[in-house]
TrEMBL record:
<dbReference type="InterPro" id="IPR050446">
    <property type="entry name" value="FAD-oxidoreductase/Apoptosis"/>
</dbReference>
<dbReference type="InterPro" id="IPR036188">
    <property type="entry name" value="FAD/NAD-bd_sf"/>
</dbReference>
<protein>
    <submittedName>
        <fullName>Pyridine nucleotide-disulfide oxidoreductase</fullName>
    </submittedName>
</protein>
<dbReference type="InterPro" id="IPR028202">
    <property type="entry name" value="Reductase_C"/>
</dbReference>
<keyword id="KW-0560">Oxidoreductase</keyword>
<dbReference type="Pfam" id="PF07992">
    <property type="entry name" value="Pyr_redox_2"/>
</dbReference>
<feature type="region of interest" description="Disordered">
    <location>
        <begin position="443"/>
        <end position="467"/>
    </location>
</feature>
<dbReference type="Pfam" id="PF14759">
    <property type="entry name" value="Reductase_C"/>
</dbReference>
<dbReference type="GO" id="GO:0016651">
    <property type="term" value="F:oxidoreductase activity, acting on NAD(P)H"/>
</dbReference>
<dbReference type="GO" id="GO:0005737">
    <property type="term" value="C:cytoplasm"/>
</dbReference>
<dbReference type="InterPro" id="IPR016156">
    <property type="entry name" value="FAD/NAD-linked_Rdtase_dimer_sf"/>
</dbReference>
<keyword id="KW-0274">FAD</keyword>
<feature type="domain" description="Reductase C-terminal">
    <location>
        <begin position="348"/>
        <end position="417"/>
    </location>
</feature>
<dbReference type="InterPro" id="IPR023753">
    <property type="entry name" value="FAD/NAD-binding_dom"/>
</dbReference>
<keyword id="KW-0285">Flavoprotein</keyword>
<feature type="domain" description="FAD/NAD(P)-binding">
    <location>
        <begin position="19"/>
        <end position="320"/>
    </location>
</feature>
Length: 467
């Protein structure tokens, strides 16, 4: 057998055989499983998920589900192909034994693997006071069960809903409340809604949108305490400015927490921002050495990006989860020369208060903003974000057809401010500070986080590998 034929045979065997385990039975896990089979993997495939449900779509939970258009259990993701997997649903992974290549489960089982994909995603940040967290009427939104409970609470026509945090999900829920005719107060510790991902200039526009829609928006304040009645149902909220609000329903939208606790002791580079990996989705160990058989994808992954000074990027967007799943799957069944990078240009969208908001790139990487098209007053515009003379992100309000144009500029590292598109010029095209807030504030964390090289980021600890 020739050398080339021998290599081809090795590659075919590597692609087809072995045991692959995916921890995380959501969008990323499902699309990775499908991609593995598309790539020709015919070996054993196990998918582990802590929820009892098959993978479902989460974005509709804060929109169509809360409005009552869709039952909470009806957002199941479509199967693009058969995956022939051993589904372990309703049981959480509790540990990773890298020496023996086993995933430890909450029921005491040990699942062996040859290659592992970590896709455990994120969860909602819990209410800060454990005693208050037990009050009836206090919710977070992440799972279909969460959405079902909030949907039921809204149907009961509460006198007042309090939403704590005005990021994308908090703002979308406030919009739903107004669509349903519910009185709603939004408490946001930043100066305006959406300051974390989009900055203060856009935040001021978002604040006006909310107030014009009848939202009682309170900015620059925090909720210090919740008070319940004799039956243990939330009835009041104490704000940091001394205000005492009467409320029947409270939804805490305080950002997300990466699901990495089960990796404690595995000596991977896991922490506050997720699990670090290279651009090929291969996990790093605690000292930055790349692993050969452990991959990461989805919300829990953080990887360097060439467009953003090779800083490590954590992305909580649907498209990044799907593309990351496909890249990880491809690289899991290909040897070095056949592997490819996962370098997504982040894209996001949000529907709130009758406005279709779409963005591309990493707006929060920029420090300047310029309106490039349309009319801010009419809530129909495009804006570009820049840093060091280069466009790094773009945003549209009811102007999404131009997003692809700005995406190409970002990919080409075009100058900032960008060249005029020659259409629909704004009345004010002056470059100004984007006014981003402190990224360390829990509700000021954007959906795309650049976590490297920043002296204000969370600290790192060097730990020598155990012998």
């Amino acid at each position: 057998m020739s050398t080339h034929a021998l290599i081809d045979d090795i590659v075919r065997t590597f692609k087809a055989e072995g045991r692959i385990v995916i921890v995380g039975a959501s969008l990323t896990g499902l699309r990775a499983a499908e991609a593995l089979r598309d790539e020709g993997f015919t070996g054993s495939l196990t998918i582990i998920g802590d929820e009892a449900h098959e993978p479902y779509d989460r974005p509709p939970l804060s929109k169509q589900v809360l409005k009552g258009w869709v039952p909470a259990g009806n957002t199941k993701l479509p199967r693009l192909r058969a995956v022939d997997a051993d589904w372990r649903l309703g049981v959480a992974a509790t540990g990773l034994d890298r020496d023996n290549r086993e995933v430890l489960l909450a029921n005491g089982e040990k699942v062996p693997y040859d290659r592992l994909l970590i896709a455990t995603g994120v969860r909602s940040r819990a209410w800060f006071n454990p005693e208050e967290a037990t009050l009836d009427g206090l919710y977070t939104l992440r799972t279909s069960e969460d959405a079902a409970k909030i949907q039921e609470a809204f149907r009961a026509r509460p006198k007042r809903v309090l939403i704590v945090g005005a990021g994308f999900i908090g703002s979308e829920m406030a919009s739903v409340c107004r669509d349903l005719g519910l009185d709603v107060t939004v408490a946001e510790r930043s100066s305006a809604p959406l300051v974390g991902p989009l900055g203060g200039v856009i935040g001021d526009i978002a604040a006006k949108m909310q107030r014009d829609a009848g939202v009682d928006l309170r900015t620059g304040v925090a909720v210090e305490a919740l008070k319940g009645d004799a039956d243990g149902h939330v009835r009041q909220a104490q704000l940091s400015d001394g205000t005492l609000l009467d409320v029947d329903v409270v939804v805490a939208s305080l950002g997300s927490v990466r699901n990495i606790e089960w990796l404690e002791g595995a000596e991977l580079a896991s922490g506050f921002w997720g699990v670090a990996c290279d651009a090929g989705c291969r996990a790093f160990d605690v000292n930055g050495v790349v692993t050969d058989n452990i991959f990461v994808a989805g919300d829990v992954a953080r990887a360097p990006h060439v467009l953003y000074e090779y800083q490590f990027m954590a992305i909580e967007h649907v498209d990044a989860a799907v593309l990351g799943a496909r890249t990880a799957a491809h690289n899991m069944v290909n040897l070095e020369k056949g592997r490819r990078p996962h370098l997504p240009l982040p894209q996001f969208w949000s529907g709130q208060f009758g406005v279709n908001i779409k963005g591309v790139g990493v707006c929060s990487f920029g420090d300047e903003i310029v309106f490039t098209q349309g009319s801010v007053e009419d809530l129909r515009f495009a804006a570009a974000f820049g840093k060091n003379g280069r466009i790094v992100g773009a945003l549209t309000f009811n102007h999404g057809k131009w997003l692809e144009y700005y995406a190409r500029l970002i990919e080409q590292s075009a100058p900032f401010p960008p060249p005029p598109p020659g259409y629909d010029q704004p009345t004010n095209a002056e470059v100004m500070s984007a006014r981003f807030g402190d990224p360390r504030a829990p509700t000021g964390i954007p959906d795309v986080v650049l976590t490297g090289h920043d002296p204000t980021s969370r600290g790192a600890e060097f730990r020598a590998r155990a012998r």
